[in-house]
């Protein structure tokens, strides 16, 4: 091959080599292609998933409707006779409550009245006790006075005492004769008139007749 033919062949090969080098520079690297492919695949998967979800939702929509209807609040209207029965029960409960209130009020009033009666009875018993004490004191004082007067009559002369007893009521004079000692009583009875002595003796006998013998 001549030098001229070699130069021609070299010149012919040079543009081909330049074109190969430009092609290599124009190709994107393998890492970029892999990343782009991954994004495309992920996008396709998401689209498929969304479409499947929509399809399932469309298929399950009619099935969810009964559940939604069941979960929704429903109003149950009572029959007329049931409403009347409930109204009758309510009215009966009101009457019972009213009666119970009346009974409680009456019981409270009775309790107050009972307390008042108890208080008055206690006051009456206290007054009665005081009255008995006063009567006992009066009786004791009267008895002391009679005993003292009897001792006075015993110290007097029998004829003077007899003159006084002649003017006294027989029952009253008999009371003094009964309290006097036997000797003084005998002297007084001896100085009395027969009528006065008889009347006093009858009163004394009547008192002794009421005394039990056994």
Q: Overview of this structure, please?
A:
The protein has 214 residues and is an all-alpha fold. Among the domains are: 80-145; 156-214, no CATH class. Helices cover 88% and strands 0% of the residues. Helix 4 (158-167) crosses helix 6 and helix 5 crosses helix 7. The radius of gyration is 71 Å and the shape is rod-shaped. The termini are far apart.
For the largest beta-sheet, the strand count, sense and barrel status come to: none
Characterize the overall form: rod-shaped
How much of the sequence lies in strands comes to under 5%
Q: Total helix count?
A: 7
Mean pLDDT: 75
Task: Tell me the total number of β-strands.
Answer: 0
Rg for CA atoms: 71 Å
**Oligomerization category of the chains in this entry:** single chain
Separation of the first and last Cα atoms:
195 Å
Helix content: over 70%
Order of H and E elements:
HHHHHHH
Low-confidence stretches: none
Structural class: mainly alpha
Features:
0% strand
In short:
Residues 1-12 have a biased composition (Basic and acidic residues). The chain is mainly alpha-helical and 214 residues long.
Annotate the secondary structure layout:
Elements: H1 3-26, H2 30-71, H3 80-155, H4 158-167, H5 170-179, H6 182-191, H7 194-209
Helix pairs in contact: 4-6, 5-7
